[in-house]
Amino acid sequence: MQAYLLNLGVLISIYSILAITLNFIMGYAGIFSLAHAVFFGVGAYTGALVAMSLSASIFVTVPIAMVVAGVLSLALALPALRVRGEYFVAASLGLQVLAVTVFSEWKSVTGGIGGLIGIPPVDLVGYQIYRPAAFFPLSLAVLVLVLVATRLLVHSSFGRSLTAIRDSESAAESFGKNVPLIKTISVVISAALAAIAGVLYAHYLAFINVESFTLDTSVLVMAMVIIGGTGTAAGPVVGAALLLLLPGLLSYMSFLPQTQIGAIQQIIYGLGMAVLMIFRPGGLVGRSKAKARTRPKDPDTEAQAPASRPAEAAR
User: What is the DSSP string of 264-307?
Assistant: First the structure.
């Protein structure tokens, strides 16, 4: 039971990293991408190949994977220079389909459908980490680092520019913001950070193939962000935890046909997203913020407000 919980903790940490990095462009820049699994896969394949041929050190595999994913993300970022909204979603969908084809057919590099096997465990300053008991603290530490990095970016001037673009591109341009450049940089950052999750995933499983990086994965990560709460710090983590705990909970329900668990999961994902979009658009975590905004004001504050306004106007 302990091994199962540790394994689940590692996977939740990895997918939380993915959800946080997608939330960086969805929640703060208003860029909806269906290709996030592509950069997850690029990070995983790059990390695996580097570990198998050069070094399994996390200080080697992670930077190389981030650079490769960041450069390749320009294939998605460049359309962002010219299109908005649903057109960008279509462009990201096209990239996702193309990437799955490449992952499947470039057998000399990716191993095709058979994938890559025998990926060495991650090397951390000379120590090989492969057991869940040791890998979980590592994945959790990386999750915290990615979360802190994204929060620092969000609260910087760059992050304020992102939210301005999300709210109104025209208004942002009128204030002198270089909208195409800011959007491109945000996509590159998101892709590079998503590659970190791919490296951890490859080292942990010691095997990867294209089935982990399909459109289903991109939709799953987007569901994590939406259900948890876009534009929030804890929302993606909450969404990742809920959607990864769900299969385990369903498997304990003996009255459900075990062969249909996958289909039932998809139905629950879809219903959950639809219900949240209708009744709680801010997601599970964002709901508290919405309530705070609509909280009744203090009567004493209301009584003092009219008196203070003339003084402010006279300044």
Answer: HHHHHHHHHHHHHHHH-TTHHHHHHHHHHHTSPPPHHHHHHHHH
243 assigned to some structural domain:
no
List the domain range (segments joined by +) for residue 153.
9-213
Q: What SS3 class is residue 31? A: coil
Give me 11's structure tokens. Answer: 């996977």
Spatial neighbors of 172 by CB under 8 A, at least 6 apart, are 161, 164, 165, 179
Rounded CA separation 209/156 (Å): 37
Per-position pLDDT tens, the chain of length 315: 688 889 999 999 999 999 999 999 988 888 888 999 999 999 999 999 999 999 999 999 999 999 999 999 987 777 666 666 677 888 889 889 999 999 999 999 999 899 999 999 999 888 888 888 899 999 999 999 999 999 999 999 998 988 888 888 788 778 878 888 888 899 999 999 999 999 999 999 999 999 999 998 999 999 899 888 888 889 899 999 988 888 777 666 666 666 666 677 778 777 877 887 787 777 788 754 445 444 444 444 444 444 444 444 444
Euclidean distance between CA atoms 38 and 16, whole angstroms: 16
Local structure of 119: helix, strand or coil: coil
**Taking the CA atoms of the chain, what radius of gyration do you get in angstroms?**
22
Structural domain total, the chain: 1
Contact call for residues 40 and 195 (beta carbons, < 8 A) = yes
